Amino acid sequence: MRFEPDMLRCYLVGGSQDTDHDPAQLRKRVNAALDAGITMFQYREKGSSTLDASGRRQLAQELMQMCHQHRVPFVIDDDVALAQDLGADGIHVGQDDEKIQQVLAQVGSQMMVGYSCSTLSEVQRANHLGVDYVGSGPIYPTISKADADPVVGVAGLTQLVAASWHPIVAIGGIAEDNLSRVASSHCSGVATISMILRSADITATVHRVLQTF
Fold it and tell me: Directed axis angle between helix 202-212 and helix 23-36, to 10°?
C-alpha cells in the first residue's frame, strides 16, 4: 500500500492495554472506529500489556484483517519481525526503538515507515531519511504513554511542521476540545489513543476529527 498524507488525518493507535487488557474489547472498538472512517491504524502493544508473543501475533493478525476489509493501512509499532511476518502495511519506529537506519534497510522498500520526532534537531535529521511520515508530540500531557517526551505544545508543533520535509501527524493528549488548535499548526492529522478508544460515541468522535482535518 502506497503512503499518502491523507492517511494521517485520523490515525488510531492502540493495543489491549488501552481497553483494560481485553483483546475482544479492542477488536470491537477498532472495528467501530474503522466503520466510522479512521484513516490509519497502528497496533501498539506496550506498557502494561499482558499478552505473550503468540497472543500479540494473533491479535495483530485479526486487527490487520479488519483494517484491510475497510481498506485502511495497518501499521505495527516497533516490531519489524512481526510486521514482515504478517505483511503489514507499515512500521512505526520511535527514537529509542530499533535504529531507524536499520529499519529502513530492512523494510523501507516493502512498507511505509513512520518515525517519532519531538524536537527540531530530530525532525531535521529525519528530513534526510527515507521515512514516509513523522509523528510528533506529545502536544499535551498524556496518560497513554508512561515514557512520553516533554510536552511540545501547539507552538512547538507548528515549528516542527514548518521545518519538516515529511508530513507530520500530531500525537499526545489530543481531545475533541483542542482539535482546532492542533489543526492550526498545519499538521496532516492527529494520532490518538484515548480520545477514540475511550469515547462514549466513537462514530461522533471520528467524524469530528475528519471534519477538522
Answer: 50
Per DSSP, the residues of 91-160 read EEE-TTSS-HHHHHHHHTTTSEEEEE--SHHHHHHHTTS--SEEEE--SS--SS-TTPPPP-HHHHHHHH
- Annotated catalytic residue: which of 116, 144, 185, 188? 116
Q: Is 198 a catalytic residue?
A: no
> Catalytic residue at 44?
yes
pLDDT in tens, 7-48: 999 999 999 999 999 999 999 999 999 999 999 999 999 877
CA 45, CA 24: separation in Å to the nearest integer? Answer: 14
- C-alpha 3/C-alpha 190 separation (Å) is 16
Q: Which residues of 173-208 are buried (b: 16+ CB within 10 A; e: fewer)?
A: bbeeeebeebbebebbbbbbbbbbbebeebeebbeb
Bridge partners (DSSP) of residue 32 are none
CA 63/CA 86 separation, integer angstroms: 11
> Do residues 161 and 191 touch, judged by C-beta distance below 8 A?
no
145 tagged catalytic: yes
For residue 170, CA distances in Å to 11, 16, 108, 110 come to 9, 22, 22, 25
The model's confidence at residue 143, banded by pLDDT at 50, 70 and 90, is low
